[in-house]
Write a structure and sequence with these properties.
Helix content is 35%, strand content 25%. It is of the alpha+beta class. The longest helix is centred in the N-terminal third of the chain and has 13 residues. A hairpin with a 4-residue loop joins strand 3 and strand 4. It is built from eleven helices and ten strands. It has a domain of 129 residues.
Length: 322
């Protein structure tokens, strides 16, 4: 049973402020008020309540890795063994994403690792586990969008453009200096820490912290992500779709899905189901509409829809049960 407090849907103003934070995780109340047409006092009070109450967290994440650095695992598990398997997978630092299907028979995980450790898990450890009946592993060829790209459909294009800081990616996480890594590590749990708080945590001068932090965010070597339970946004259905798309239409389909407001992740994969999309939707009728209408123009020839029963582990979220 859902906790009624945890699943209470946030009102329109709170959702607009969340959407504003998605544009700029370090957004000030004054700037939010100016763009959204609010009083600074109201914006400050609402933002403080969202962040202090735990409804919303803003975390810092590194830029995503290049192609071939991750694998999508679909693991069939005997009933009654699901919690044991997901707990073991969630404890691994090389797995940042785990979903449990609503039917209770499948675990989806994203594995990021060097070839050696990755091969041992996929080809030796998982198949040797008696509770697991099958494992499929597909290499991620291209990421069209991930959770850091998802935007709640609560702002106008003009508002979103005004709230989004200027800047283009110019560095990868691998290029960060030891100083930059200290800042990135300190911001993982709370990307809204002030420069003075960061200076105290890292031991670096506040003026230098302020300058380097601005450069990291401008270069998108450090990205902010808003973490919020989609049910608080009125999005009750969480689903993963595995699509078959002819190669000539794959890129267009991936780009179209990445731009869809319901989609919070799209990846191209090896294998027959060569495109995967993760969606949040209001209800099952909205999912039906998405499949029958929104996917219709994208040349999809096959679809496997898996409802998510529980998001066990996702970037920015602690594993379930912790």
């Amino acid at each position: 049973m859902k906790d009624p407090v945890e699943s209470e849907v946030l009102d329109e103003l709170d959702q607009r402020l969340i959407a504003a934070l998605q544009c700029d995780g370090r957004l000030t109340a004054e700037r939010a008020a100016r763009v959204l047409g609010l009083s600074a006092r109201l914006a400050g009070r609402r933002l403080a309540a969202l962040l202090a109450g735990g409804a919303v967290r803003v975390v810092a994440v590194p830029p995503r890795e290049g192609p071939g650095s991750a694998m999508l695992l679909r693991i069939k598990v005997l009933r009654g063994k699901l919690d044991t398997i997901t707990a073991a997978l969630a404890a691994r630092p090389d797995i940042a994403f785990i979903d449990m299907s609503a039917g209770g028979e499948e675990v989806t995980a994203v594995l990021s690792a060097a070839a050696g450790p990755r091969g041992r898990l996929v080809f030796r450890q998982l198949p040797a586990t008696s509770a697991i009946t099958s494992v499929s592993a597909q290499t991620v060829l291209h990421v069209y969008a991930d959770a850091t790209d998802w935007r709640l459909d609560a702002l106008t294009e003009a508002e979103r453009g005004e709230l989004t800081p200027a800047g283009t990616p110019s560095r990868s996480a691998a290029e960060l200096s030891p100083f930059d890594r200290d800042l990135a590590d300190a911001l993982q749990g709370d990307a809204r820490l002030t420069a003075s708080a960061l200076a105290a945590r890292t031991g670096h001068p506040e003026s230098t912290v302020r300058r380097r932090l601005g450069a990291l965010l401008r270069d998108r070597a450090l990205i902010t992500q808003v973490v919020v339970d989609p049910r608080r946004l009125g999005l009750e259905v969480d689903a993963n779709l595995y699509l078959q798309v002819p190669p000539a239409h794959l890129d267009a389909a991936g780009r179209a899905l990445a731009a869809h407001p319901a989609v919070h992740g799209v990846i191209a994969l090896t294998g027959s189901a060569n495109l995967s999309a993760a969606v949040w939707l209001r209800d099952l009728e909205a999912l039906h509409t998405f499949i029958t209408r929104d996917l219709a123009p994208l040349s999809v020839t096959g679809i496997d829809t898996v409802l998510v029963g529980r998001a066990v582990k996702r970037p920015g979220h602690a594993p379930a049960g912790q």
